[in-house]
Structure formats: structure tokens, C-alpha cells
Amino acid sequence: MCPTRPAATDPAAPPHASSDLAVKIAWLYHVERMTQEAVAQHLNLSRIKVMRSLASSVAERVIVTTINARSLSQIEMERTLERRWGLTNAVVVPTPADPANLERAIGHAVAAYIEDHVTGSTVLAIGGGATLHASLDFMRARELPEAAVIGLVGGLPHARWINPSIVASRVARRLGAESYQITAPVMVDAPDLCARLWALPSLRDVRERAAAADLAILTVGEMSPDATIFRHGIVAPDLLPSLTEAGAVANVLSYFVDAGGALVDHEVNRRIMAIPPAEVARLPNVVLAAGGPQKVEAILAALKSVKARVLISDSDTAARLLEADD
């Protein structure tokens, strides 16, 4: 009898991400009726690891006649999100009881994703925002001198967590990686100034490095006075009505996009110093990390705008996304 061949995993590809990988393996095998080899190939794991996980799930009573785990509903949501939007991964974390802790909950999952997917010489492109800033509290210090972190958004004149370049540089420091920044204000006075700044050799180099990134992680903001971009004056709040009238439903990397993910025709979009969503969309792996009921429309727009392959969100938001018309 010939020995069974191991699943043909790609050693260069990272393993699949999930809120609970053991339960996801059990779900695929017992509920979706995938073979062990198919599970291994789908999750980019060895067949031995899948076999051991299934055996452990039985021993630990994760599996009885049904899957017996609190994270079951999250796994079901992950699989439904993946199928509905053609995602490689969806990671759904429990929605915290206190909404003030939502960014930290999602940030914890972002840190876990970075732990698993940023290794060796990975080039990570990163945006800004409260969720990505919160991930720093859970990110393990490492030394990855051949890796690099590229800031996707320009800076602000004050060094608070809302400054996208601060978030990117702190992630690089935590990883012990090289850091590259767009050394220009996130918003300039005139469109022609944007063109002149991008023509500078130093900024052209950052843009080229961003275009060659292995992985991008970003978030999205909704169109409301409470959104970070308006609340902290990155964009003047009095522009909100005209942006909404132009069709904007979200801001992605400080650009304003419509429900289809396209840039709206508004002068603000011509004054932004950030890597455009269309360029980020060409990267092989784009991760969107966002949650909150007020962001459902914005998340749907962002998924289209940057062609995200991974969504990290919370269970309440995931449920609303699945109820929404896309």
C-alpha cells in the first residue's frame, strides 16, 4: 500500500488566521465535510497538524456530537464572511460589553495577525487610527532587521496617537524593523503641491517601497462628526456636508470613497498625501481591521476600495455586515 501523501502546503505562505484555529479546523472537517487533506491545503497547514488538532479537539471535548465551543458562532460568521466577500481570512472576535474597549479587542487580533504573518524580511505597509494604535499594547517586541514597515499616510504636526506616521514608526520599533515614512503633512494646501512632493526622490522611494509591500493593514472611518478624521481636525468638520453630498460614505487612508469604493470627486481628495487606495489594492494581502455598528457602510466600501483579502472585526459588526445589502 502506498503511503498517503501530505497536503501540498506552500511553505512560503503564512498559516490561515482565525479567532480560534482549532475550532475552525473542526468546523471545516465535521461541518463542511472537507477531508483532512483539503483542510490542510485550505489553511496552509501540514496534514499532521490538522490530524493532531482534530484529535486534541476530541480529547478536550471541543467536539462531541456537535462542536462544543463558545467560539462556534464566531467561526460560522468567519466562514460566511469569507464566502460572501471572497476573503482569504475573516477573523471575528467577541464584541466587548463596554463599547469603549472595541478598538482594543480588534487591536489584540491585529497584533496576533502581525505576530503570525510578519517574519523574516516581510515588508508591512500600515495605516493609522485608534485600532492600529491599540494593537501596540499587545505586540511582542522582536528583532526583525531585514523586515520593513512602510507608513501609508503622511504625518500631523503633533505627536499623538492620531498621527499615522507615529503609529507606523512605533510598529517598526516594536518589530525591530526598518521604518519608512511619508515625510509630508497628510493634507496640503493645494493639489499641485501634492504632485511636487511626490516628485521628491525620498518620497518617490517610499511610494515605490509601499507598492512592493507583502502585506498592508489599515482601518476605515465613517462619515460622521465623531470619526477620528473630523473629530481631531485632520479634515475640517465643516467639509463633512460637501463630502457627503459628493457621495462619500467612508474615509480610507484619509481619502474619501463612495459606496462602490471609488474616490469621490472632491477637492480634499486632491490634497491628500497618502498612498491611494487603488495602489494599495494591488498588494497581495490587504487586511482591513474595523468594527462598530456605525462603520458597517464604511467597511463595505473599504472592502471594495482596497480589495481587502482579510477582515478583522467583532461579532456584532460581523452580524450587521451579513445582514447588509452589499
Question: Secondary-structure blueprint of this entry?
Answer:
Elements: H1 21-31, H2 36-43, H3 47-59, H4 72-85, E1 89-93, H5 102-117, E2 123-126, H6 130-135, E3 148-151, H7 164-175, E4 178-180, H8 191-198, H9 201-211, E5 215-218, E6 221-222, H10 228-231, H11 240-245, E7 250-252, E8 255-257, H12 277-280, E9 286-289, H13 296-305, E10 310-314, H14 315-323
Parallel strand pairs: 1-10, 2-3, 2-5, 3-4, 5-9, 9-10
Antiparallel strand pairs: 6-7, 7-8
Helix pairs in contact: 1-3, 2-3, 4-14
How would you characterize the overall build of this protein?
The chain has 326 residues and is of the alpha/beta class. It has helices at residues 21-31, 36-43, 47-59, 72-85, 102-117, 130-135, 164-175, 191-198, 201-211, 228-231, 240-245, 277-280, 296-305, 315-323, and strands at 89-93, 123-126, 148-151, 178-180, 215-218, 221-222, 250-252, 255-257, 286-289, 310-314. Strands 1-10-9-5-2-3-4 form a 7-stranded parallel β-sheet, sandwiched between helices. A 3-stranded antiparallel β-sheet has the order 6-7-8, with helices on one face. β3, α7 (164-175) and β4 (178-180) form a beta-alpha-beta unit. α1 crosses α3 and α2 crosses α3 (47-59). The chain starts with 20 loop residues before the first helix and ends with a helix. The model is unreliable at 1-7 (pLDDT under 50).
